[in-house]
Design goal:
The chain is α/β, with parallel strands linked by helices. The chain is globular. The chain contains nine helices and seven strands.
Length: about 250
Amino acid sequence: MVLAVKLALAPVLLAQGVLTRARLPRLPEAEGPRQGRVGRGRALRLLVAGDSSAAGVGVAHQRDALAAPLAAQLADRLGAAVHWRLLAQTGLDTAQTLALLQAAADLRADVAVVVTGVNDVTGQVPARRALAARQALADWLRGTAGARHVAFTPLPPVHAFPGLPQPLRWVAGADAHRHNAALRGWTAGRPDVSCVDMTLPLDPSAMAADGFHPGARAYAWCAEAIARHLAAQACRFHTDDEETPA
């Protein structure tokens, strides 16, 4: 049904897509360090990778974005010294995120959090092809970067994004739902990959000025949800290496 609607509304959706891109403000990625160390205890290497939402678009500084608060919360929950690194760039889909990681030097991680998917939807990447890219990304992280566990965040409720007009919002939301269903089906019951159990409670006050990216409240909620999920998975990736407190 969605495909039939997309075909019928193709001229409208194309025009709305072009106008929306021109209308939405182009927000910068968050400033601040993209790696660091927080906490005390056993050493844990955390990698956060992905698109603009991983990069902190929507807030001014990384301390209000995703990676740094996630590292701090994970350190508290696990009693660990978390060495975290952020590799993310606005506009990347899942396959492009893999290319970004492959170009990084000396990339090692115990656990990786991947934030992608919205650009797969906006770029009309079919759910099956996006899932294949996630599989390739997880395989590379486990095989080359040494990650013991890879956690993927689900796509946000695109159907509720205030920055998107109707019917573009509805169609994109339906696509996002299919991508999430494929992701959850693939990760179900697997010890090496998982889909974070989270449904972002969107309201305009939690969003950035463009009505498309998270604001500070949404990032804080996401960091807490991901940290809670990773803490429940800790037996699958936590190392036994002790680290002398700095």
